[in-house]
Amino acid sequence: MKWSRLLPAAWRPAPQPRQQLLASLLQLAWVVEARDPYTGGHLWRVAQFSRLLAQAAGLSEAEVARVALGGFLHDLGKIAIPDAILGKKERLNDEEYAVIRTHPESGLRLLGTHPLAQLARDAVLLHHETPDGNGYPYGLRRDAIPLVARIVGICDAFDAMTSSRPYRAGMPIAKALSIIRLELGRQFDAELGELFLTLGDGEALAHIVGHTDEGIPLERCLACGPTVVRPREAQTGDALYCPACHSEYTLGPAGAGILPSGRQDSVRALSIAPDAALIERLVEQHRAALD
């Protein structure tokens, strides 16, 4: 435990203004993700994958931190996607997918004139661009796509493939890696993709897949399937809620996961509050991005 957490709040070192601004962006991203009942932990996982890939690419500490930050913030634009599409249990139709494709530009507008917008702009706007020019929103090709967007694009796609959805189970890591291998130079940057495959083949990704935080496995509602968010600070017996059906669960003892209580509470289930401990740790991890 950090020594500062043992001090009364009034005695703790005051966060620096730029760290407070960084925290505000991370909190916003957390709230946006909380709207989607099926993607809990996605931002954390993409940020971790992105950090590992940036390190493998030989980037500096500050550059690695900026890439990881872009991984956490890349889906800001999903705030503009209707709940009916985000929470749909079936595959999206063409019209709904067209709405999903608007989220990069919506994310750019949401960043607006935030003082730290430049740290995340490329990741937010361009993470769905592909080397073959078939990506969106602009159809950029190869090196016209910024490095951070190429990294986050690989990591975002890998997490999507290895994560479960209502209409399909998540792929095994080996199968997702095989798809990336087939798409090198087309959907994925060839050089970065090879580095990512090396990470995957060396099992450097396995501890991140299927988790919502370091050492915390992803939990799902037994009744309807969405992610039940389990904060690191949660204690045995604490109540947790499904964001879709509002079923209540209690956190069991170590290794037991979540246990259904048989109750529902729509008010508490819909109360969105960022995981303060997670945000604090992310600010510490990404401070180098401010240099």
Automatic annotation (TrEMBL):
<dbReference type="Pfam" id="PF13487">
    <property type="entry name" value="HD_5"/>
</dbReference>
<dbReference type="InterPro" id="IPR052020">
    <property type="entry name" value="Cyclic_di-GMP/3'3'-cGAMP_PDE"/>
</dbReference>
<feature type="domain" description="HD-GYP">
    <location>
        <begin position="17"/>
        <end position="212"/>
    </location>
</feature>
<dbReference type="GO" id="GO:0008081">
    <property type="term" value="F:phosphoric diester hydrolase activity"/>
</dbReference>
<dbReference type="InterPro" id="IPR003607">
    <property type="entry name" value="HD/PDEase_dom"/>
</dbReference>
<protein>
    <submittedName>
        <fullName>HD domain-containing protein</fullName>
    </submittedName>
</protein>
<dbReference type="InterPro" id="IPR037522">
    <property type="entry name" value="HD_GYP_dom"/>
</dbReference>
